[in-house]
Amino acid sequence: MIEVDVKTTSGRGFTPEELAEQAADKIIAVSDTANPVIQQQARAFRKQIVTVMSKYLEQAVRSDRTTVYNALNDAGQPQLADLIRRL
Known about the structure:
Blueprint lengths: L15 H12 L8 H39 L3 H8 L2
Helix pairs in contact: 1-2, 2-3
């Protein structure tokens, strides 16, 4: 059976935190019938995963903007590059 989960935003893309939450939902699952100690450990681990992934996704966004900024500067578009840098 294939499970489909659809999430949307309005007027914007997903934030790094939102994407980290979605990824953690796919990586970590714990049964409601699991031992409460195991549930607690899994939830704590999930929280750590979300924190780490959020930080790396934020770095990925900054890195990509740097790449776009440099490409626009190299293409002779310094004003457009500066707009991207200020995002």
